[in-house]
Amino acid sequence: MSKEKNPNLIVKILMLLWYAVSHPLIWIGKKLIAFFGGLNYHRIGSKVVHAVGDFLHWLIFSVLLPKRYRSITKKQIYRIIFKADTPAGKRFDIWLLVLIGLNLVVIILDSFEAVHTNMRWILKGLEWIFTIIFTLEYYLRIYCLQRPWKYVFSFYGIIDFLSIFPAYLSLLIPATQTLTVLRVLRTLRIFRIFNMQRFLHESFHLLNALRRSAAKIVIFMLFVFITAIILGAIIYMFESSKNPGLSSIPKAIYWAVVTITTVGYGDITPVTPMGQFISTLVMLLGYAVIAVPTGIVVGETIQEYKTDTNQDNNEPVPEEFNEYEDRPIGDDAQDGNVDAQDGNVDTQTALTRFCPHCGHTEPDSEARYCRYCGTLLSKSQPSGWINDFFSGEE
């Protein structure tokens, strides 16, 4: 009898132990779920973003910049970073392209095993130096804009973010470090930097043609996808019993896509006469697949040029951003005498006060605070020192 009761006793003890351990764990789990579910993630994210921004602002304007350059306004930063029609802006963009090129060289060198083994930490240090520089530059692009989200979600803004994000992601996933090569996409600004208007106009024509033909291409690619599934199922029906390479429908679909696109890897080939006949038809179909989207894009491109000939061909290419208008403000600047280099009003028509925060020139001599941002106005005029700083002049 004792032998029969022992197993029941052991089971009861185990159940009591499980209850004693699981009950507190379940209670703790419920509390954690309730705690994390009640958090305001938007507020937390906002605080984190502001904390990072405050740190970067302190690092730039309190540590890295010399004291004589720390009173730079948002408008001056904007002209240097976003405008390529000033000496300072062009020099800034050229140096940025040089840094991107050097960073690309570092990434390529790090891919060689011998170089990686002997110079791993040197290359890693250089990579993080470039990452920090591009991070500070990305912050300045956001800081100087009145509507920063317009830039963040723009084409160039997304590219700039993708150029720095993989480096920080590599702290969690080391393999993503290679994705920092996306920084080479930032060289797309080279046409705007060097004022290659013809190349910019041609790129706009191509983008407009692709935009107009996008719906047609999507419909056609859907048709090709359906065709690949059908052909894969047909070839599987004839080849599955005799060809181990086509042992499933997904493999057959893979073969159909490779054959339709005329890539022809050759890793899977039909062996039956019927399968080879179907392959011949699919190969011939592949040429039509190549010709159709090409004809669609070419037709839209021709239509784009016909439309352009009916318009003004001298229409200026839009700037990346135009947040600050390049004209003097106030009644005292009626002649519009503006310095084309840095956008400052000529000293002969200079207005009496300006805002050191947003760069607004105030025509009212009695005003003490900026009408836009509320900053205390200054009696001194903005100078051209920022252009001198980036141009190397003293």
Short key terms for the protein model shown above:
mainly alpha, 5 domains, 394 residues, single chain, disordered C terminus, Four Helix Bundle (Hemerythrin (Met), subunit A)
Q: What count of helical segments does DSSP give? A: 13
Largest sheet: 2 strands, antiparallel
| Distance linking N and C termini | 103 Å
| Assigned CATH architecture of the largest domain | Up-down Bundle
Main sheet: strand order: 1-2
Percent helix, as a range, is 55-70%
Q: What is the gyration radius calculated from CA atoms? A: 32 Å
Give the topology string: H per helix, E per strand: HHHHHHHHHHHHEEH
Content-based structural category: mainly alpha
CATH class of the largest domain: Mainly Alpha
Oligomer: single chain
The gist of it:
The chain is mostly helical.
Please describe what this structure looks like:
This protein is mostly helical and 394 residues long. The chain folds into five domains: 2-39; 42-69; 71-195, Four Helix Bundle (Hemerythrin (Met), subunit A); 198-309, Helix Hairpins; 325-394, no CATH class. The protein has 13 helices and two strands. The chain has a two-stranded antiparallel ribbon with strand order 1-2. The chain is extended. The N and C termini lie far apart (103 Å). Residues 312-318, 325-351 and 381-394 have low confidence and may be disordered.
Summarize the topology.
Blueprint: H1 2-37, H2 41-64, H3 74-82, H4 87-110, H5 113-118, H6 120-143, H7 148-152, H8 155-169, H9 190-193, H10 197-239, H11 249-260, H12 273-309, E1 353-354, E2 361-362, H13 385-391
Antiparallel strand pairs: 1-2
Helix pairs in contact: 3-4, 4-6, 4-13, 6-8, 10-11, 10-12
